[in-house]
Amino acid sequence: MTRRVLIVTHGGRPEAVAAMAEAVAELESAGFEVALHDDDLAESFGDQMSSARLREGVAESEVVMVLGGDGTILRAAELTHGTEVPLLGVNLGHVGFLAESERENLHDAVRRVAARDYVVEERGVVDVVVERPGESEPVTGWAVNEATVEKSRRERMMEVGIEVDGRPLSSFGCDGVVVSTATGSTAHAFSAGGPVMWPDVDAVLLVPLSAHALFARPLVIGPGSQYTVEVLERSPVPGVLACDGRRSIDLPVGSRVHVRRGAVPLRFARLAYAPFTDRLVSKFNLPVIGWREAAAAGGARRRPAGWAGHDEKED
Hints:
The protein has helices spanning 14-29, 39-44, 70-80, 106-114, 188-191, 276-284, 289-298, and strands spanning 3-9, 32-36, 53-54, 63-68, 87-91, 101-102, 119-123, 126-131, 139-143, 146-151, 158-164, 167-174, 176-180, 204-209, 219-221, 226-231, 239-243, 247-251, 256-261, 266-270.
């Protein structure tokens, strides 16, 4: 049976093109048939990748390998959402929070895929339903990071109302509202002052953007609840909804945006177990070295009774 990998990359970056050429060669040597999502890129480099085919369907692929940063991974997520095919991100960007591997480990990533030496992790998404005045049918969407309602013009704040499970909670003027998954809590919501949620937290986060109100704190609701963000009739400007910063829809005054946990998760291929705490420390370069060295000099840190964590040691 033919094994296939679909590659998604940022064709405008020379380093991404070079990484793609290397990945195709490695995958072909391992016996894979390779498909490239970017048709123009595939045609341009066809002489270098003779057996690489244009996209023939994500569902036929074993893994979708993404060469790029988080933006490229979000683009690839649009292809795999609703399928059983996992994403494997190889980071070519700066932070690369969604990526599993770094550029220098590309060879090992291919080897692990060939050996099926990876686990599949599911990440929750949010489903979005938009009701706009004068339209009988709602518009639907989804996001793996966040759905953001923002003002469509810079000169004035928009006025929004917030509901939880159909009950009014508050209203205020603001630049917008971010509704985020646990995965997206380290993205737009994080930059707006929201809390970091561990990926296994089954909840949905709401963070107001520059709200002019006394009660405009981040909110966290459970998996069975729903936020509604309404662009109020008194709002001097309309809004716009952006899902993962990629798919957008205009929100006239009077529009209502319903956001809740999605029914279909997104799947990621993971090469190794690493605690999310370590990922935070690595990606944000958090200052932990000093107290680790102090602990090593003075003995193990005191732990709570019944502690079953891993031994203290340098990674």
